[in-house]
């Protein structure tokens, strides 16, 4: 995490202007900080903000098509450092560092290896996409760490439950449950925490709900398998009807409560979009059933849903649109910012005469990491389905659920940086596969040495590749030739 902070914090304020979708989120966060809800901004507001005029918002509420929490997190940095490029990007750094820590802990929990956990964390440190989203005020960089923490708590709950079953057997002097169901454990603290963090992640962007659904099913299956392993035999099937509803409460109901809590500022203020809808629609079923506040929020959510799946988005186009299939292999990356045509002698440009320099921020993963992770996913599926290794099931199910959830919307513009929800899990699978290459510590020294060279070489390749692409992810000055060296495919331009 300290290494992640050291790579992500320097020159955070560069470029100083509002770039890419910061034009939405940085301004929404600033008005949320002052009013509790987002307001519209006039044309030319970006230039006004750079000139120091930060209170030029309009009096009308803005129709924001994502939940509130991401804006509040950006606003925290603005509250500390002001409405400037450092302020609206600072919390992205903090959550980028948190993503590294959460991935490390999740991988450590799954693999039971501190080394494998550290490798997974190092992969995220050296991932170009994770790096980019750690230095820009976009929502996805906040969504992913919260989702990874939630999944890590799901893994922790699985171990906690099995330990409780073991404690029960030991306390009763039993070698196994001998066909009995075993203890009913109503209190599941780590499952509760998982529900809280799933709700918070949905409070940034909705598509975490696909991961929540997958982890809910995973948790129920793990409870059933744990009781079966403990000797419940046919009684273990009762887990589906006893532990299952409890899992639904801890994960889904708690997540809904956590999600609603992220809308607190919208509830306690009067000016947000659709906040007063119920007052003019008192005869509707939603108002009679849920009251004014929740009915208004429900109507707002319907409007958000219609925006995302409606004709407007379906007909929209974008030059950087990338399908979910392309994400896995980095088929189409995304340009975030470019300052081109910097002439020789200007801003330290040492390009040859007739050429020029440029500064770019490209949203791209580290190719060596993403391509090896794609291969590792295939290997992980084999270990899971044919080797019955549950450790690979959890990250693959988490990533697969949120990835597959995008396909029904593939007719609208989708972007590569959405894949930040995949790489913590695929990098974990790659780290665990690297651990399998390394093998047991008690292997004969010559075998261990050869395996260590291969595993270490894979990690070193990722590190070196990240160093190579670092300039196009961090707005560094490059000659046109140096930039072209890093754009290996036309679809990366």
Molecular structure report:
Helix 8 runs antiparallel to helix 9 (189-202) and helix 8 (140-171) runs parallel beside helix 10. Helix content is 61%, strand content 4%. It has helices spanning 2-8, 22-35, 45-50, 69-81, 85-111, 114-125, 128-133, 140-171, 189-202, 208-229, 239-261, 264-268, 285-309, 311-315, 324-328, 367-385, 390-404, 423-438, 445-473, 480-486; strands at residues 334-342, 357-363, 477-479. It has a domain at 266-309. The protein has 493 residues and is mainly alpha-helical.
Q: What structural class do helix, strand and pairing data support?
A: mainly alpha
State the major sheet. 3 strands, antiparallel
DSSP strand count:
3
Residue fraction in strands: under 5%
Average pLDDT level: 96
What gross morphology would you assign? Answer: flat
Topology:
Elements lengths: L1 H7 L13 H14 L9 H6 L18 H13 L3 H27 L2 H12 L2 H6 L6 H32 L17 H14 L5 H22 L9 H23 L2 H5 L16 H25 L1 H5 L8 H5 L5 E9 L14 E7 L3 H19 L4 H15 L18 H16 L6 H29 L3 E3 H7 L7
Helix pairs in contact: 1-5, 2-4, 4-5, 5-6, 5-8, 5-18, 6-18, 8-9, 8-10, 9-10, 9-11, 10-11, 10-17, 16-17, 16-18, 17-18, 18-19
Short overview:
With 493 residues, this protein is mainly α.
Annotation keywords:
493 residues; mainly alpha; 3-stranded antiparallel beta sheet; 4% strand; flat
């Amino acid at each position: 995490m300290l290494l992640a902070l050291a790579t992500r914090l320097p020159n955070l304020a560069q470029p100083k202007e509002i770039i890419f979708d910061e034009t939405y989120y940085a301004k929404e966060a600033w008005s949320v900080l002052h009013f509790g809800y987002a307001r519209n901004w006039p044309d030319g507001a970006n230039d006004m903000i750079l000139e120091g005029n930060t209170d030029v918002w309009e009096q009308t509420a803005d129709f924001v098509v994502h939940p509130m929490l991401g804006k509040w997190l950006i606003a925290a940095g603005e509250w500390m450092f002001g409405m400037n490029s450092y302020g609206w990007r600072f919390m992205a750094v903090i959550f980028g560092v948190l993503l590294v820590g959460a991935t490390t802990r999740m991988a450590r929990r799954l693999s039971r290896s501190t080394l494998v956990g550290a490798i997974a964390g190092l992969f995220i440190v050296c991932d170009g996409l994770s790096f980019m989203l750690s230095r820009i005020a976009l929502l996805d960089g906040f969504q992913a760490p919260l989702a990874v923490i939630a999944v890590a708590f799901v893994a922790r709950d699985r171990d906690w439950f099995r330990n409780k079953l073991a404690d029960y057997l030991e306390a009763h002097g039993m070698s196994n449950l001998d066909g009995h169901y075993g203890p009913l454990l109503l209190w599941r603290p780590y499952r509760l925490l998982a529900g809280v963090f799933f709700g918070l992640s949905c409070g940034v962007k909705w598509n975490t709900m696909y991961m929540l659904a997958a982890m809910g099913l995973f948790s129920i299956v793990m409870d059933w398998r744990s009781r079966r392993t403990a000797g419940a035999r046919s009684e273990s099937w009762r887990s589906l009807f006893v532990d299952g509803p409890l899992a639904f409460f801890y994960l889904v109901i708690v997540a809904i409560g956590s999600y609603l809590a992220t809308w607190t500022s919208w509830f306690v203020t009067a000016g947000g979009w659709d906040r007063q809808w119920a007052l003019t629609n008192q005869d509707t079923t939603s108002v009679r059933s849920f009251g004014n506040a929740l009915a208004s929020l429900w109507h707002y959510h319907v409007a958000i849903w219609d925006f995302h799946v409606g004709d407007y988005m379906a007909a929209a186009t974008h030059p950087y649109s990338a399908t979910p299939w392309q994400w896995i292999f980095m088929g189409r990356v995304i340009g975030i910012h470019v300052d081109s045509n910097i002439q020789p002698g200007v801003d330290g440009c040492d390009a040859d005469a007739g050429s020029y320099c440029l500064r770019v921020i490209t949203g791209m993963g580290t190719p060596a990491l993403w391509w090896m992770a794609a291969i590792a996913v295939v290997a992980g599926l084999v270990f899971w389905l044919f080797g019955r290794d549950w450790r690979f099931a959890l990250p693959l199910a988490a990533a697969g659920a949120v990835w597959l959830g995008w396909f029904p919307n593939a007719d609208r513009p989708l972007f590569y940086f959405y894949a930040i929800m995949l790489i913590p899990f695929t990098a974990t699978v790659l780290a665990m596969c690297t651990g399998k290459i390394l093998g047991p510590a008690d292997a004969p020294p010559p075998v261990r040495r050869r395996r260590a060279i291969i595993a270490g070489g894979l990690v070193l390749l990722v590190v070196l590749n990240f160093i190579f692409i670092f300039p196009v992810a961090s707005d560094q000055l490059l000659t046109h030739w140096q930039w072209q060296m890093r754009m290996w495919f036309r679809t990366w331009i």
